[in-house]
Write a structure and sequence with these properties.
With 453 residues, the protein is of the alpha/beta class. It is built from 15 helices and 14 strands. Helices cover 45% and strands 15% of the residues. It is globular. The structure holds pyridoxal-5'-phosphate.
């Protein structure tokens, strides 16, 4: 390990001086000036500096299927092979023989795309069957399909919410819902993560002055950045009390946890009882695409012409529909139970080993294991060390999380072995401590001093 870490030990002061460990995407959000190109230039320089200093872990290129062992190339062209904890393919279904066969058969029968928006000629027998399969899985009868999960969140909110309405979101709600809320109304309220009390206080505050307009409450089944879950029953009850509508994004939990793969909603005994459930096929379901589900036929029919990302975007393609359809079948089968059990075993080994290494993991048992690192400088060195040693996990910085709360997110697959989990967790534990100690020593030594590991 130490040979590859040498580049950091020897060059830490140079790296610090370069500025590549400083700044964040947050610095380039508010721009001014009339030239769009020069406004982008400052960001371009910051990114290039990080790239040149070897601390730019984003937009890597996968050379194989998104399995547990992969070869990855970074944006400088550096290639590494190793264990992959950066894939959303939690149950490993994107390489499942039956899923592949279903997608190929769909291509042979319908071609590679549907060539129409859903309100025009964008439906096929497969997309209609997919709607039924989703309805059965989530326990809500009325489904609208979207080209991605992001499009589902954005589309549902912009369709339903008007400028005088309110959207109350958990502070860590996904970007698709935040963007949808901001596009629809100025009345966007973000409340403390997982706090039912904070939601209730906000609802009470709104209703004390506004009894006329709608309120949409937005949360997630398993939070993508924290790996934890809210008390959905308490939120749904609060919504009823204050005439609000609850929407839960189940992108990461549907199929991956819960009885029969019914996600957090199923785990909490609320199948069919949540107002609106949205989700994605891009995690467990081996495809691109998303959906919104509701018990209200009226809401479904309203979304179809008024959700812009449904109405004005080409429909989910036949091979994607076929893959998702087959994946749902597997998710609901005994094989699905077995795969979920494997995910939970691997996640357990990861969490135990990380804890033994003295690293803080967020969230609860499930496919997401976020390792909290805090300072971006620590995160950037840790991520670079992990990449060099062939352990692939996603570095999460602002805007996905707040500045100073960066983390390495590990994503478990049923196809990982316990040994892979243990070795990756040990490496990550070592890399975090190494990065922290190196930076602490460098700052204690001050400019111009030499630092040893
Ligand atoms: C909670 C959540 N919702 C929605 C999405 C978007 O899904 P998709 O990748 O299908 O656009 C994601 C993606 O990571 C997510 O984490």
């Amino acid at each position: 390990m130490s040979v590859l870490a040498d580049r950091f030990t020897h060059d830490i002061l140079k790296l610090i001086d370069s500025g590549a460990l400083e700044g964040s995407f947050a610095d380039f959000v508010r721009l001014s000036g009339k030239s769009l190109e020069s406004r982008a230039q400052r960001y371009y320089e910051w990114r290039r500096n990080r790239l040149e200093q070897g601390v730019w872990p984003f937009s890597t290129q996968l050379q194989s299927t998104p399995g547990p062992q992969v070869t990855v190339t970074d944006e400088t062209g550096k290639e590494r092979s190793g264990v992959n904890f950066a894939s959303y393919d939690y149950l490993g279904l994107s390489t499942h023989t039956e899923v592949r066969a279903a997608a190929i058969e769909a291509i042979n029968r319908y071609g590679t795309q549907i060539a129409g928006a859903p309100v025009l000629q964008g439906n096929s027998a497969l997309s209609l069957r997919l709607q039924t399969a989703v309805a059965e899985l989530v326990g809500l009868p009325h489904i609208v399909l979207f080209p991605t999960g992001w499009a589902a969140g954005f589309g549902v909110i912009t369709a339903l919410i008007r400028p005088k309405d309110h959207v109350v979101l958990d502070q860590y709600a996904h970007n698709c819902c935040v963007q949808g809320a901001m596009a629809a109304t100025a009345n966007v309220h973000r409340v403390r993560h997982l706090s039912t009390d904070a939601f209730v206080r906000q609802l009470r505050r709104i209703r004390s002055t506004d009894t006329e307009n709608a309120i949409l409450v937005v949360t997630e089944g398993i939070f993508s950045m924290n790996g934890d879950s809210p008390d959905l029953a308490a939120l749904q009850t609060a919504c009823r009390e204050y005439d609000a509508t609850l929407m839960v994004d189940v992108a990461h939990d549907l199929g991956a946890v819960g009885p029969g793969g019914t996600g957090t909603v199923g785990l909490q005994g609320l199948l069919g009882k949540v107002d609106l459930v949205i989700g994605s096929f891009s995690k467990v379901f081996a495809a691109n695409g998303g959906f919104a589900s509701t018990s209200s036929a009226a809401i479904r029919e309203y979304l179809r012409p008024y959700a812009p990302s449904h109405t004005f975007s080409n429909a989910i393609s036949p091979p994607q529909c076929a893959a998702a359809l087959k994946a749902i079948e597997i998710v609901r089968s005994a094989e699905g139970d077995l795969l979920r059990e494997k995910v939970s075993q691997v996640a357990h080994v990861l969490r135990e080993t990380l804890a033994t290494s003295g690293v803080v993991c967020l969230g609860k048992p499930g496919p997401l294991v976020p390792v909290l690192l805090g300072r971006e400088a620590v995160g950037r060195i840790t991520a670079a060390l992990c990449f060099d040693h062939g352990v692939f996990a996603n570095l999460i910085e602002y805007p996905a999380v707040s500045v100073g709360a960066c983390r390495l997110r590990m994503q478990v697959m049923a196809t990982h072995t316990r040994d892979e989990a243990q070795q990756a967790a040990e490496l990550i534990g070592w890399a975090c401590h190494f990065a922290e100690q190196l930076l602490d020593r460098a700052s204690a030594a001050g400019p111009g001093a030499s630092v040893s590991a």
